[in-house]
């Protein structure tokens, strides 16, 4: 079901490991369905792999700045077209991703975009191991929607301003190493005074 919420900062789910958890942000969000809500459960097709999922999902631990424990969150931007493919018919695909990774996923409603873009917002939360797999599955689904195994996929992440320096590194050393290890092109948008986040764009 579509759940309306009042304006305000997004609040992490109380239990990130359960499908069906909810959060808040200005606008309207789609609640992640539980697998039991749908007859047939796991009938969603399997996606293809994508190099960009390697860049986002494993890059952070290669650079050595993964936290030790506790739930983690990732905010990804996705197009209107991509959102439909990730949600699936009656929520089939998003439900399966949540169930198999132990993460909670939320996608903003149609026409609810990240500031300055025409992209919807997909927030994923859960333990770090499950979150890496969740990000990978979302990117694999995006890749499969293009219908070509050799076509690049672009992943857009909302990165807190406070974390950008760790990603770029001194004189760009960290982001250059990450790019070399994953084979992906990585760019970070300029800082905007009114926003607390910048866009990290990964293509590969």
Automatic annotation (TrEMBL):
PROSITE patterns: KH_TYPE_1. Residues 19-28 have a biased composition (Low complexity). Pfam families: KH_1 (PF00013). GO terms for molecular function: RNA binding. Residues 70-143, 151-203 form the K Homology domain. Gene3D superfamilies: K Homology domain, type 1 (3.30.1370.10). Keywords: Repeat, RNA-binding. Residues 1-44 are annotated as: Disordered. InterPro entries: KH_dom, KH_dom_type_1, KH_dom_type_1_sf. CDD domains: KH-I. SUPFAM superfamilies: Eukaryotic type KH-domain (KH-domain type I) (SSF54791). This is K Homology domain-containing protein.
């Amino acid at each position: 079901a579509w759940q309306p919420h009042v304006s305000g900062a997004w609040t992490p789910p109380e239990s990130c490991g359960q499908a069906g958890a909810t959060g808040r942000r200005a606008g309207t969000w789609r609640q992640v369905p539980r697998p039991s809500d749908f007859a047939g459960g796991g009938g969603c097709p399997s996606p293809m792999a994508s190099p960009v999922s390697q860049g986002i999902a494993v890059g952070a631990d290669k650079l050595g700045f993964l936290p030790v424990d506790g739930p983690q969150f990732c905010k990804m931007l996705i197009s209107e077209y991509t959102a439909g493919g990730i949600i699936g018919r009656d929520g089939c695909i998003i439900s399966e991703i949540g169930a198999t990774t132990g993460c909670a996923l939320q996608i903003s409603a149609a026409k609810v975009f990240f500031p300055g873009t025409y992209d919807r917002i997909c927030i994923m939360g859960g333990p770090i191991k499950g979150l890496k797999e969740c990000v990978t599955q979302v990117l694999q689904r995006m890749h499969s929607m293009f219908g070509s195994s050799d076509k690049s996929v672009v992943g857009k992440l909302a990165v807190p301003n406070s974390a950008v320096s760790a990603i770029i590194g001194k004189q760009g050393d960290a982001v250059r190493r990450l790019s070399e290890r994953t084979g992906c092109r990585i760019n970070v948008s300029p800082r905007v005074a009114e926003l607390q986040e910048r866009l990290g764009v990964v293509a590969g």
